[in-house]
């Protein structure tokens, strides 16, 4: 394989040299790292990574190929992948194509032969790192460090329904900020009807569609970009039993007066220990977030903290004291990562079944 030289020019002043896997392309964005040992396809197709150049710390990527019949999103995902060693000859019974053929077809920029350990240490040291992948070493243009408008670009334009279509099926509405297919799949396992709605859907539209419960999805960018949506998020969650995942969790918190802040370098991986405050039980979770609900102000809010991160003590889950509103910062739908928390989604559906008021008789 003859490959063109690629550079990562960082806002820290560092320049790393590697090679392009596939077509040379120029792209810039926030440089983050994910420590999962598997799940590269899920990371590449998770819309929460939109606008980010994702470094995978596991050194060999592509060895079990790509299964094109699965994936978190067909159209969106990481803006680029930064890896150490690509595997060009995958071996797995479900693989339909190789990493190289897949990224070539998707026109996704991928750079390899990078010392990903060194790059990860740079990100850990500097925190907020932005960079540009470019074929030109002296490409020191000013990097755009504020990314806005990511959610509107990845959200559905009109409602789309999945699963049971019978009139008496329980109906869960998903507010799509960049949802992963795995969230829909986890809901559908409970024999419900799921409708995915655009990010700016109102309470009235949800009532018109006769939903019984609402799930606020994951998604890319700073939750404060959606400040205009907060009154609507609050109104919807005060009307329907509600559950938030990652960005959805952050938006629910903001809508009730909490604050969010940026973590030093984010939580992205498949082994983040989280403790349930009530039981002290620790579960390994799948995570992908750069922002977090700030501790400051939580006690003045209507929420109690339900989960805490064991590594850094940050807030991992909230439960409203009076309303049927709960949320988690981690990913109970997994993919990639441990499935130990998928029961949380089943419990939400059960709660909607038992306590959701069906007003659409
Ligand atoms: N996976 C997500 O929903 C990420 C939420 C948000 N974009 C963050 O980085 O914190």
Automatic annotation (TrEMBL):
Residues 1-170 are annotated as: CPSase. The active site is at residues 246, 331, 333. It holds the Pfam family CPSase_sm_chain. Residues 4-134 form the Carbamoyl-phosphate synthase small subunit N-terminal domain. It comes from the Bacteria. It catalyses: hydrogencarbonate + L-glutamine + 2 ATP + H2O = carbamoyl phosphate + L-glutamate + 2 ADP + phosphate + 2 H(+); L-glutamine + H2O = L-glutamate + NH4(+). SUPFAM superfamilies: Carbamoyl phosphate synthetase, small subunit N-terminal domain, Class I glutamine amidotransferase-like. Composed of two chains; the small (or glutamine) chain promotes the hydrolysis of glutamine to ammonia, which is used by the large (or ammonia) chain to synthesize carbamoyl phosphate. Tetramer of heterodimers (alpha,beta)4. Small subunit of the glutamine-dependent carbamoyl phosphate synthetase (CPSase). CPSase catalyzes the formation of carbamoyl phosphate from the ammonia moiety of glutamine, carbonate, and phosphate donated by ATP, constituting the first step of 2 biosynthetic pathways, one leading to arginine and/or urea and the other to pyrimidine nucleotides. The small subunit (glutamine amidotransferase) binds and cleaves glutamine to supply the large subunit with the substrate ammonia. This is Carbamoyl phosphate synthase small chain.
């Amino acid at each position: 394989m003859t490959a063109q030289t690629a550079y990562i020019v960082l806002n820290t002043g560092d320049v790393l040299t590697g090679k392009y896997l596939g077509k040379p392309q120029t792209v810039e964005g926030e440089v983050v790292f994910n420590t999962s040992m598997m799940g590269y396809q899920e990371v590449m197709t998770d819309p929460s990574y939109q606008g980010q150049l994702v470094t995978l710390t596991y050194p060999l990527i592509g060895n079990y190929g790509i299964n094109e019949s699965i994936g978190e999103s067909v159209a969106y995902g990481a803006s680029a992948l930064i890896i150490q060693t690509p595997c060009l000859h995958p071996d797995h019974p479900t693989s339909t194509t190789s990493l190289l053929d897949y990224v070539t077809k998707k026109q996704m920029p991928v750079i390899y032969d990078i010392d990903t350990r060194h790059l990860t240490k740079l990100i850990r040291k500097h925190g907020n790192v932005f960079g540009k992948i470019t074929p030109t070493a002296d490409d020191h243009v000013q990097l755009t460090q504020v990314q806005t408008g990511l959610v509107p670009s990845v959200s559905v334009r009109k409602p789309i329904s999945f699963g049971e279509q019978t009139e008496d099926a329980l109906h869960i509405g998903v507010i799509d900020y960049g949802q992963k297919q795995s969230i829909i799949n986890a809901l559908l396992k409970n024999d419900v009807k799921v409708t995915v709605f655009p990010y700016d859907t109102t309470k009235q539209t949800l009532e018109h569609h006769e939903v019984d419960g609402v799930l606020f999805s994951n998604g890319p960018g700073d939750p404060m970009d959606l400040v205009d949506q907060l009154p609507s998020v609050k109104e919807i969650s005060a009307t329907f039993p509600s559950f938030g995942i990652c960005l959805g969790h952050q938006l629910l918190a903001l809508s009730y007066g909490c604050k969010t802040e940026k973590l030093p370098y984010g939580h992205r991986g498949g082994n983040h220990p989280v403790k349930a405050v009530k039981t002290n039980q620790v579960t390994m979770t799948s995570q992908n977030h750069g922002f977090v609900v700030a501790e400051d102000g939580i006690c003045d809010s209507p929420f109690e903290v339900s989960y805490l991160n064991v590594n850094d003590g940050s807030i991992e889950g909230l439960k409203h004291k009076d309303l049927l509103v709960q949320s988690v910062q981690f990913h109970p739908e997994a993919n990639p990562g441990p499935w130990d928390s998928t029961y949380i989604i089943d419990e939400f559906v059960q709660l909607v079944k038992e306590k959701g008021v069906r007003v659409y008789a």
